[in-house]
């Protein structure tokens, strides 16, 4: 950060958490569901094949 400032760049301070409290709770709930029942989710490679890209 100091190097960027010394080179004349504007440095904005960012929060550590990019997600808000509700978003974090949703992510944690999804993680819990995946751990408890991993067979109910598709593998990424399989899911990607089913995506429409148009």
Overview of this structure, please?
It is elongated, with a radius of gyration of 19 Å. With 54 residues, it is an all-alpha fold. It is 52% helix and 0% strand. The model has no long low-confidence stretch (mean pLDDT 86). The protein starts with a helix and ends with a helix.
Describe how the helices and strands are arranged:
Elements (H helix, E strand, L loop, with lengths): L1 H5 L14 H16 L7 H7 L4
The radius of gyration is: 19 Å
Report the order of strands and helices: HHH
| Secondary-structure-derived class | mainly alpha
Distinct helical segment count: 3
C-alpha geometry: elongated
* Helical proportion, percent range: 40-55%
Largest sheet: none
Q: How much of the polypeptide forms β-strand, as a percent range? A: under 5%
* Strands, total number: 0
Give the tags.
mainly alpha
Kindly summarize this structure in a few lines:
This protein has 54 residues and is mainly α. It is built from three helices and no strands.
